[in-house]
Description:
By secondary structure, the protein is mostly helical. The chain has helices at about 1-25, 30-40, 45-50, 60-75, 85-110, 110-125, 125-135. Helix 2 packs antiparallel against helix 4 (about 60-75). It is globular, with a radius of gyration of 20 Å.
Amino acid sequence: MRKQIAMLVAMVAVVGVMGIVGAAAPEVSIKQAMAKIAGKKGGALPKVKGALNAASPDWSEIKKSTKIIADNSAAIVDATPEKGEKANYEKLAAALAANGKALNEAAEKEDATAAKAALGKIGTSCKTCHDAHRGK
Ligand code: HEC
């Protein structure tokens, strides 16, 4: 009987911990991901832009930032924006994720030309998505 009670207590504890972990780690919100990707203070995209234009680019720094862009853009493809049609958002978000991935792959290869091309595509995607899906 003691053993069974101990087991039960342990099980309740495990379920409880899982609940806390689940609550503490919600899906990445679009807002959070955008801030990490493009925030003026410490956003990855402004860093990559600056670093790519250097005479001898610091690839290890660039790779850190392009990975943040790739990961965060991939994380919001399934998110639901406050405004606009979800299907349209998904299309634009998938394009952002694809360009983010291309940018990260170019950085991995230390290919500045390809990285700049991907960066250009990302740069022209902001307004279309914001006009359709960014509230306020
Ligand atoms: C696939 C759609 C999409 C693309 C592409 C996109 N954004 Fe956004 N962005 C959003 C949405 C939606 C919000 C509003 C999020 C919210 O407040 O819930 C947002 C919010 C932001 C914010 C505000 C974040 C904050 O802290 O409130 C910034 C900055 C931003 N975007 C920058 C950019 C830049 C720069 C680009 C292009 C390089 C870009 N975004 C491309 C959808 C997009």
